[in-house]
UniProtKB/TrEMBL annotation:
Residues 15-130 form the LD-carboxypeptidase N-terminal domain. This is LD-carboxypeptidase. It comes from Hymenobacter lapidiphilus. CDD domains: Peptidase_S66. Residues 173-289 form the LD-carboxypeptidase C-terminal domain. Gene3D superfamilies: Class I glutamine amidotransferase-like (3.40.50.10740), LD-carboxypeptidase A C-terminal domain-like (3.50.30.60). The keyword Nucleus does not apply.
Length: 306
């Protein structure tokens, strides 16, 4: 069955900002609120904003109740996760998507919010992997913010990136799946796990040790997550760490070592992840990936159901 895309946003729609993971204050979110209002939207700051329990945006019960409230409210047309960090997996199993399924809405975020992106995809709903309110105005992030706006308002998202020496040529169509590598591994075997078969997987991460990147790729491969892929898109692996004795491969080389066992196109150097250039991707959307001598392109594609 094809995934369900929530309706595009329209001027005067009401949207909510919540903190399912780390805390964010109203002062930290003020510029993002102004931006959303500049897009013609009305903004509600949820009860999980401007509160904190240690690193979290309030206790688990606060974050879960706030997110549930915004997911259920028919007037809310999109839910923005203020920031990532850690915490979404602590509350995801307590959420109920029955009312959400009656009137789906856009949910947007990345990093730790990969949990929510995957949980929605496992239930047949598209969501947006994109820049979060706390990062709306980071230096060099204007293109990322505009891509998020385009995704939310139903405008075309067609991307082209330069050639990369590790690319594997080919063309593939499939639904987008993926996000943060460490979160994807954490979700394996849970109610938020998603199938990658016949889909185009995208990966990104930050601050991971090189051996840990290798370990996670071994795990994805052993659990069959790579074998059935239609294609692979490799994003930013920001600030990789190494031991005193070097691991000997970069994150891209590690990924390519395992991807080379199969026969699908691979596009390295795609601008998605923990850097200012973090272009919005619609998780669950059918896309076409083309990789050739000139580089790689990713655009909304048609998948035959015959």
């Amino acid at each position: 069955m094809p995934t369900i895309a929530p309706p595009p946003l329209r001027p005067a729609d009401l949207v909510a900002i919540v903190c399912p993971a780390r805390a964010a204050s109203h002062a930290e979110l003020a510029a993002a609120v102004a931006t959303l209002e500049g897009w013609g939207l009305r903004v509600r700051l949820g009860a999980s904003t401007n509160v904190a329990q240690h690193q979290f945006g309030g206790a688990d019960e606060v974050r879960q109740h706030d997110l549930q409230l915004q997911l259920d409210d028919p007037e809310i047309r999109a839910v923005f996760c203020a920031r990532g960090g850690y915490g979404t997996t602590r509350i995801i199993d307590g959420l109920n998507f029955t009312r959400f399924a009656e009137e789906p809405k856009w949910v947007a975020g990345f990093s730790d919010i990969t949990t929510l992106n995957c949980h929605l995809l496992a239930r047949g709903f598209q969501s947006i992997h994109g820049v979060m309110p706390l990062l709306f105005h980071q230096e060099g992030g204007a293109e990322s913010l505009e891509s998020l706006r385009r995704a939310l308002f139903g405008e075309a998202l067609d991307y082209a990136v330069p050639a990369h020496p590790l690319n594997c040529f080919g063309t593939a169509t499939g639904e987008l799946v993926g996000g943060n590598l460490s979160i994807l591994q954490t979700l394996t075997g849970t109610a938020s796990d998603v199938s990658t078969a016949g889909r185009i997987l995208f990966l990104e991460d930050i601050d991971e040790y090189l051996y840990a990147v290798d370990r996670m790729l071994v795990h994805l491969d052993r659990t069959g997550k790579l074998a059935g892929l239609a294609g692979l898109v490799v994003g930013h692996f920001t600030n990789p760490q190494d031991n005193t004795i070097p691991f000997g491969r970069t994150p891209n080389e590690i990924i390519q070592h395992y991807a080379a066992r199969y026969n699908f196109p691979v596009a390295h150097g795609f601008p998605v992840g923990h850097e200012p250039r973090n272009l919005a991707l619609v998780v669950g959307q059918p896309v076409r990936l083309t990789v050739d001598e000139s580089g790689a392109s990713l655009m909304k594609g048609f998948i035959s159901t015959m």
